[in-house]
Amino acid sequence: MCSTTMSYNETLNYSDTYDYDYNYTCDQDASSDFYIGSMVLTVLCYVLFCVGILGNSTVLWVLLRHVKLRTMTDVCLLNLTLSDLLVAVSLPLWAYSSQNLGLCKIKTGVYQLGFYSGTLFVTFMSVDRYLAIVHAVAAIRARTRRYGITASIIIWAISVTMATPRVVFASLESIDNTSECQPIYPEATEHFWKLQRNFSENTVGLFLCLPIMIFCYVKILIVLSKSRNSNRNKAVKLIFIIVCVFVVCWVPYNVTVFFKTLEEFEISLGPDPCVSSKTLNTAMSIAEIIALSHCCVNPVIYAFVGEKFRKSLNKVMVKYLGWSYQSSGPYSHRDTTDKETSNTPVRSEY
Questions:
Q1: Average per-residue pLDDT in the chain?
Q2: pLDDT tens profile 164-223
Q3: Contact 338, 321 (CB under 8 A)
Q4: 287 class by beta-carbon count within 10 Å (0-12 exposed, 13-18 middle, 19+ buried)
Q5: Is pLDDT of 61 > 60?
Q6: Among the four 71, 94, 231, 270, which has the fewest Cβ within 10 Å?
Q7: What share of the chain is helix, strand, coil (3-state, %, to 5)?
Q8: What residue ranges do the domains of the chain occupy?
Q9: Which residue windows are transmembrane per the record (predicted)?
């Protein structure tokens, strides 16, 4: 789906879904207008690939080599990093036009698996923060590594299940003497599978995970507002950043998917269906890039600003590079041996 290719093909194949008399003219205009945009999006895919690989690989290395995975937070952060790496690894594949069906299915599956698992793990970390702060005493026994591993297995199983249909229908279609990777559904059930795809993405990203995140962080803010901790304001700012980043990255994409669903029901989004379709496809391409950038931001907001992770990273720098990073703020010199859950910014700031 980083898909300069997919969005471009959807525009070219507009006549496959809707039978309007002026489809030929619409297709021709789409081909000329989208070329420059597709090149820009391709470059952005490679940039996000480099940044995502560098950030998430660093987090993964520190977690596996220098952080003891003792808590639910540790396990969840590890799996979130793996999920983001999956998304980052798949980015160059979407910019590369291959005539290999196996590669087509692999890159489709990797992206879809990263999309669902990443969103679910971000939500799971929000629930973990909620339990750690709002129900700190009651949730001590529930926030163990064992339960973290169990929850992670369930999330990966759900992600694989939801990603499977896209992999099954991923195929090569010949367009302008080239083969492009995109889903090709059976004619009799094409409408159903397109709706299933859009509904699944909207359910996970917009109707389920976002409300859960908002609920958790609103509850956390209520607890923090009653606290006299000196780092309360910093924690509130970080919570605001977490929610805003998720909203900015994923809500535009999910809203665009929702409009694509309306299009499947032949609900007109403008006076000219052809122009509306091309505009929506362009919006989808931009929204996809914004959404994919979330895999690059996650290492920063979920790891590098965490007190425990920063100290582990500092040890790595001292050991392998001979220089250290000094944390700033009133908590930088505090003993953290009893703060095994301070990987995330919400917890580490107070």
A1: 77
A2: 999 999 998 876 667 778 889 998 998 899 889 999 999 998 899 999 999 999 999 899
A3: no
A4: buried
A5: yes
A6: 270
A7: 75, 5, 20
A8: 4-348
A9: 34-64, 76-95, 115-140, 147-169, 204-224, 236-253, 286-305
